[in-house]
Specification:
Structural class of chain A: mainly alpha
Number of helices of chain A: 12
Number of strands of chain B: 0
Largest sheet of chain B: none
Helix content of chain B: over 70%
Strand content of chain A: under 5%
Radius of gyration of chain B: 24 Å
Order of helices and strands of chain A: HHHHHHHHHHHH
Order of helices and strands of chain B: HHHHHHHHHHHHH
Shape of chain A: globular
Largest sheet of chain A: none
Structural class of chain B: mainly alpha
Shape of chain B: flat
Oligomer: heterodimer
Largest interface: A-B, 45 and 47 residues
Chain lengths: 311, 307
């Protein structure tokens, strides 16, 4: 039977991709989990039984159950509440890191790939160097430089002072996001540049050039729409890495500052009393894995949706 | 071929040079010196003497040139934190540990990943495939910070099968290798599956089947051997990633590898150790990428003519 072409939307590539995504059960599960986690993060003060920093020293290491569903930590703070508030940290790192990686990578890569020649060579030289930098080492270096610098004499400068204030307000997470953003765009820029380079040579772009379309129009109408999908896939799949990086930095004590409820910091606190209270390290770990799993499922589904050949 | 490799090797020098410069500037952009601890300040004269001894009183460009000159002669300098050992000593003592851990994790990743990938591809779109790919996605999603404590709790504390931490015996290597290797197993499984699927649909596989070869023989002798080429080529970067990324696992299991030293030395501003480790890890990374291209050229003759 011939399908009547009733609406134009049905045939749009994004519509097709969305339908393919919805058929992907893991991806839907990932997306639903993410939506739930976002709601948890937004409504944390209403959901959490207690405030994340409220300690009760008479209840330190309280066992799970009763007043403390998942137990209490060494300061008698409710683990469940801290895990709930911790969602905010992980998701902030995830979305801000992803947003910056996406836009910086897209713009940098498109410019490099589209204009080519000497611009491309110069821009890619920078990317090559950053790409060779062991990224976790680079982030650790940046973090220590930031933290000690912004905590010390650099605060005389009003800009650094503002950054230091913002970071303190965000419990040390702001600088983590800066550190992740400074490294994460590099891979995205490489990917975008490669795709832009091949699209540039494609017939439809060449025809647009031939009829005299300006660069801005070609980029907006012909190049960028084709790059968004694959880049979105790559960024989504990179997000678990950002989340793990934040958790690791907080785990080794150069990330979030107490009493910020970072899951990584909670794992490191719980890990010290692993023998007597193993649940204190395990529950935040489960939360961490859940968020990473949700992003990986979503990213995997997005990949199949945008590139059906890979399945 | 040799010329290509040489040219690529030469191209690495400026990359490493820039990395050393960036690291150097980042370290030194923090005001103060490694010897200005706030909790127990040194007498000013002693601090000045120490800084003079390590040439920290010289202008930055001179310090950098002095350091790079020594590096070119193979001397990575002294450690400020561990006065009795040089950076060369530290690397010689602790890099092998990181290497062993990386190799074990890679071995675990291959043993688990290749079978999962092959089975998923042979049973494409069946429940076995879905299960395999579910495991693969779950594998990359469970970070060492989750898996490590879980394994310690289950295998070491509850069942008392394995020692909790430290390094030396094979029992102590099991949990770190699994923790570090699970993510790699997942990556290898996905890659093997994708590569197998591509190969299976090629004409020569149909030929092999049509001449009556057993399915098993077709898969192992004809399909898998070719499907493993992409897997083989990412082994270098995977291994490099394992060595440089083992910091988390080394921290959790108290393993005396190089990654743990890096974390400690950054906090203490042990400049030569920071520089030495960063340069070494960067060199491992760029060399492993080069090795990929070379193995490609050796395994697949088409790549050679493409250059």
């Amino acid at each position: 039977m011939i399908q009547p072409a009733t609406t134009a939307t049905v045939n749009r590539p994004s519509g097709r991709a969305l339908r393919r995504l919805l058929r992907h059960r893991f991806a839907v599960a990932g997306a639903v989990t993410l939506v739930l986690l976002i709601l948890v993060a937004i409504f944390a003060p209403w959901i959490a039984p207690k405030h994340f920093a409220d300690g009760d020293l008479f209840a330190n290491y309280a066992p799970p159950g009763g007043d403390f569903l998942l137990g209490a930590d060494f300061l008698g703070r409710d683990m469940l509440s801290r895990i709930i508030y911790g969602t905010r940290i992980s998701l902030a790192v995830a979305f801000l890191g992803a947003g910056i990686a996406f836009f910086v990578g897209l713009i940098y890569g498109v410019i490099s790939g589209y204009y080519g020649g000497r611009t491309d060579a110069a821009m890619m030289r920078i990317v090559d160097v950053l790409y060779a930098f062991p990224s976790l080492l680079f982030i650790i270096l940046l973090m220590v430089t930031f933290k000690t610098g912004f905590g010390g004499s650099m605060t005389d400068n009003p800009f650094f002072h503002a950054v230091a204030r913002l970071d303190t307000q965000m419990g040390g997470v702001f600088l983590i996001i800066v550190g992740i953003s400074l490294t994460s765009w590099v891979g995205m820029a490489r990917l975008t540049r490669g795709m832009a380079l091949s699209l540039r040579r494609s017939d439809f772009v060449q025809s647009a050039v031939a009829v005299g379309a300006r660069d801005g129009r070609i980029l907006r109408l012909h190049l960028i729409p084709g790059l968004v999908g694959p880049l979105l896939v790559r960024v989504t799949l990179a997000v678990p890495g950002f989340i793990a990086t934040e958790a690791f930095l907080s785990f080794i004590g150069i990330g979030a500052t107490p009493p910020t409820p970072s899951w990584g910091m909670m794992i490191s606190e719980g890990f010290k009393v692993m023998r007597s209270h193993p649940h204190l390290a395990i529950w935040p770990g489960v939360a961490l894995a859940t968020v990473m799993l949700a992003f990986n499922f979503l990213g995997d589904g997005l990949r199949d949706a945008f590139d059906p050949h890979s399945r | 071929m040799t010329v290509t490799i040489l040219r690529r090797l030469l191209a690495l020098i400026p990359v490493l040079f820039v990395i050393s410069l960036v690291t150097f500037l980042l370290m030194h952009s923090v005001p103060g010196s490694p010897f200005s601890a706030e909790d127990k300040p040194l007498p000013p004269q002693i601090k000045a003497n120490l800084e003079a001894y390590y040439h920290l009183d010289e202008p930055l460009p001179q310090q950098y040139l002095r350091y790079m000159g020594n590096v070119l002669r193979g001397d990575l300098g002294p450690s400020y934190l561990q006065r009795s050992r040089s950076v060369n000593d530290i690397i010689r003592d602790h890099l092998p540990v990181s290497f062993q851990l990386g190799l074990l994790a890679l071995g675990f990743g291959l043993l688990l990943g290749i079978p999962i990938g092959v089975i998923s591809a042979m049973r494409q779109n069946t429940w076995m495939d879905y299960l395999g790919m579910f495991v693969a996605i779950a594998g990359v999603s469970v970070p060492a910070m989750t898996l490590g404590p879980l394994l310690i709790w289950g295998l070491a504390l509850q069942l008392e099968l394995l020692p909790v931490a430290r390094w030396g015996t094979w029992q102590q290597a099991v949990m770190p290798a699994i923790t570090l290797g699970l993510g790699e197993a997942a990556i290898i499984a996905r890659l093997t599956r994708a590569s197998m699927l591509q190969v299976i649909h090629q004409d020569y596989i149909r030929t092999a089947r049509s001449k009556g070869l057993a399915e098993r023989k077709v898969m192992v002798k004809h399909a898998l051997r070719n499907a493993l080429i992409p897997v083989l080529t990412i082994l270098g970067p995977l291994f490099a990633g394992l060595v440089t990324g083992s910091m988390v696992v080394e921290q959790i299991f108290a393993i005396p590898g190089l990654g743990r030293f890096f974390v400690d030395s950054v906090g203490a501003r042990d400049y030569p150790v920071i520089m030495g480790t960063t340069l070494l890890f960067a060199a491992i990374l760029v060399l492993s990428n080069l090795v990929v291209d070379i193995t490609y050229a050796i395994i697949d003759p088409r790549m050679r003519t493409a250059e």
